[in-house]
Design goal:
Largest sheet: 4 strands, antiparallel
Radius of gyration: 37 Å
Strand order of the largest sheet: 2-3-5-6
CATH topology of the domain at 42-99 and 145-314 and 359-469: Outer membrane efflux proteins (OEP)
Number of strands: 6
Helix content: 40-55%
CATH architecture of the domain at 42-99 and 145-314 and 359-469: Up-down Bundle
Number of helices: 8
Strand content: 5-15%
């Protein structure tokens, strides 16, 4: 009685047949430089991403932030509820299609009959009287052409989609927290360096103003220095605003109000740059990025809808039966009442609907093709993001190397100038200028260091974040394969 299942049977698309992410082979390791965050990073092929990848930065404060966000984020709670809803929708539909429907009922009806209406002097019973009825109805629709199975297949695909959306939400949340923490650490370091530059510029302005009073410099030199100080001070409000915005964003990630949350201060010195970076095989990327897996689940759902639309073209047979008892005495309703039963079968075939059914099938096919194109786009975008991140890791390491060299040269220049100043060979203005250049170079190095930490976090995200290694990968029916049969034609 199972019949056949019409419509296409879904098969996962083949992964791209590529051996690397970038056009040119990657170097064995990135460039290195002196100072924190400057060590070389090696790319380790076929190394798996750990589920708690953020622990590789070896910062307890960062670990606490991510774990609190994963526990309390309202965005993650929404994704979990969507998964539960999809699972329950699947269970409800499976129970409604795989098992017969059984309904029980009991009723009482008050009846009054006029004997004169039937041209008889009197009835054998007194009127009005009450008729009691108890019944049990059973019905089952035969799934001859697989419509119910395709519907279940589509619902199962929706469950898979919501499960991968949950994993994507977890990954995005962890990535957002890590990125915000790195940005906060970078901004704090930038504010500290900028405040030192402002103090030096103010000290330099005092000297220039004193020299102008003594006739040693022109008024234009004072105005120029005032402009330098104003520009240095003007950068501080923007940095402080960005810092506050970052901390407010972190509070929301943690599911707390910005005005009430107590956040630890993460510093760049607290972070350790991962020395080894995992690099999965490109063909495995489609199985490890949750956004690609979610797009595949939508493609699967669209495929199942083609089967549903195809099955609608064929007849449906429903078997039904009703049995029960009828009596005028409530006490004997389940005993000596008059029994009755009905057995029946219904064959329904849509004959003419103005081309509606065929148009629905063509619509389902078009939706399937659209889902296929969307899947390919997600795959291409995923590979692009990995390639972009690998390039950033390589070039940002080179940029830090140059920034570190520039900072080293500026520091050496300042040390030499300081010795010359102690010996009376240069003025205080020259000493302060050398110190300002050293601080500016250090500020540039801080920004480049933060970029390297951000690039490392981005690579873990772009490779999928290691969700498949987590002990909590969803629950219920998520991830199970739907029951399908080979495509046949009745």
């Amino acid at each position: 009685m199972a019949g056949c299942t019409v419509g296409p049977d879904f098969h996962s698309p083949e992964p791209p047949a590529v051996t690397r992410y970038t056009p040119e082979p990657l170097p064995a390791e990135t460039a290195s430089s002196e100072g924190p965050g400057g060590q070389a990073q090696r790319f380790v092929s076929e190394r798996d991403v750990p589920a708690e990848w953020w622990t590789l930065f070896q910062c307890p404060a960062l670990d606490d932030l991510v774990r609190q966000a994963l526990a309390d984020s309202p965005a993650l709670a929404q994704a979990k509820s969507k998964l539960v809803k999809a699972q329950e929708d699947f269970q409800a539909r499976r129970g409604a299609t795989r098992m017969p429907k059984i309904d029980a009922g009991i009723s009482g009806t008050r009846v009054y009959v006029q004997p004169e209406s039937f041209d008889v002097p009197e009835l054998p019973i007194e009127t009005p009287f009450t008729v009691y009825a108890a019944s049990l109805s059973v019905s089952y629709t035969l799934d001859l052409f697989g419509k119910s199975r395709r519907e279940l297949e589509g619902l199962q695909a929706r469950v898979d989609y919501e499960r991968f959306e949950l994993e994507a939400a977890r990954l995005a949340l962890a990535g957002n927290v890590v990125t915000a923490a790195i940005e906060e650490a970078s901004l704090r370091a930038q504010i500290e360096a900028t405040e030192a530059i402002v103090a030096l510029q103010a000290r330099r302005l005092e000297i220039v103003e004193r020299r102008e009073q003594l006739g040693g410099v022109a008024r234009v030199d004072v105005v120029t220095q005032q402009g330098e100080l104003a520009r240095a001070r003007a950068s501080l409000p923007d940095l402080r605003e960005r810092l506050e915005r970052t901390r407010h964003r972190l509070a929301v990630y943690l599911g707390q109000l910005p005005g009430e949350v107590q956040l630890p201060e993460v510093k760049l010195a607290d972070l350790q740059l991962p020395a080894e970076l995992p690099l999965s095989v490109p063909s495995e990327l489609v199985h490890r990025r949750p956004d690609i897996q979610a797009a595949e689940a939508l493609l699967h759902e669209a495929s199942a809808q083609v089967g549903v639309a195809t099955a609608n073209l064929y007849p449906r047979i429903t078997l039904s039966g009703t049995g029960g008892s009828l009596t005028t005495v409530l006490a004997s309703l389940f005993g000596s009442g008059t029994g009755f039963y009905f057995l029946g079968a219904t064959l329904a075939q849509k004959v003419f609907h103005g081309g509606e059914l065929k148009a629905q099938k063509r619509s389902a096919v078009a939706a399937f093709e659209q889902a296929g194109a969307a899947y390919r786009e997600v795959v291409l975008t995923g590979f692009q993001s990995v390639a972009d991140t690998l390039s950033a890791l390589n070039y940002d390491a080179q940029a830090l190397q140059e920034r570190s060299a520039a900072a080293g040269h500026a520091e050496t220049t300042y040390e030499i100038t300081a010795r010359r100043y102690d010996a009376g060979g240069v003025s205080l203005l020259e000493l302060l200028d050398a110190q300002r250049q050293s601080l500016t170079a250090s500020l540039d190095r801080t920004k480049a260091t933060a970029d390297r930490y951000g690039d490392s976090a981005a690579l873990f995200l772009m490779l999928g974040g290691g969700w498949w290694n987590s002990a909590d990968k969803g629950s219920g029916t998520a991830g199970t394969k739907p029951e399908t049969s080979a495509e046949t034609r009745p």
